[in-house]
């Protein structure tokens, strides 16, 4: 086993907690913006950043596991990476569909007048 990157007993909770707080805040913002059809570019860009960050955590977890890091280190990266990749990745379809529905409502309302 190589030298641990950090003390897993004290710091293993930080990657998952930081990612979870970031995702919670951004998902609330993106949900509000998508519901009202506003700031599409900003919302989709931040959604992609959340997904890319989850993939980076997932890759970092696999690298830590391959390097023989203790369980607390690789699991601290792997779990939020795996959950974030799946949850944010699957909900990206929901966000895109909501923006599409708002655009369709706008076009239908425009056709009425």
Q: Characteristics of this structure?
A:
113 residues, mainly alpha, 86% helix
Task: Describe, in plain words, how this protein is organized in 3D.
With 113 residues, this protein is mainly alpha-helical. The chain has one domain (13-112). Helices cover 86% and strands 0% of the residues. The protein contains four helices and no strands. Helix 2 packs antiparallel against helix 3, helix 2 runs parallel beside helix 4 and helix 3 packs antiparallel against helix 4. The longest helix has 42 residues, at 71-112. The mean pLDDT is 94.
Quickly describe the structure.
The protein is mainly α and 113 residues long.
Order of helices and strands: HHHH
Mean pLDDT rating? 94
Q: How many helical stretches? A: 4
State the total count of DSSP E strands: 0
Helix content: over 70%
Could you say how many structural domains there are in total?
Answer: 1
What is the 3D shape?
A: elongated
Strand content: under 5%
Distance between the termini: 71 Å
Secondary structure class reads: mainly alpha
Q: Radius of gyration in whole Å, from Cα? A: 19 Å
Q: Largest sheet at a glance?
A: none
Query: In terms of per-residue confidence, which ranges show pLDDT below 50 for 5 or more consecutive residues?
Result: none
């Amino acid at each position: 086993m190589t030298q641990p990157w950090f003390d897993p007993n004290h710091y293993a909770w930080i990657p998952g907690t930081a990612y979870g707080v970031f995702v919670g805040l951004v998902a609330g913002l993106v949900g509000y913006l998508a519901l009202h059809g506003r700031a599409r570019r900003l919302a989709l860009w931040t959604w992609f950043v959340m997904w890319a960050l989850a993939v980076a955590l997932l890759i970092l977890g696999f690298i830590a596991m391959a390097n023989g890091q203790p369980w607390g280190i690789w699991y601290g990266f792997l779990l939020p990476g795996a959950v974030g990749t799946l949850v944010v990745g699957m909900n990206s379809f929901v966000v895109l569909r909501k923006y599409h529905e708002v655009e369709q409502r706008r076009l239908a309302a425009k056709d009425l007048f």
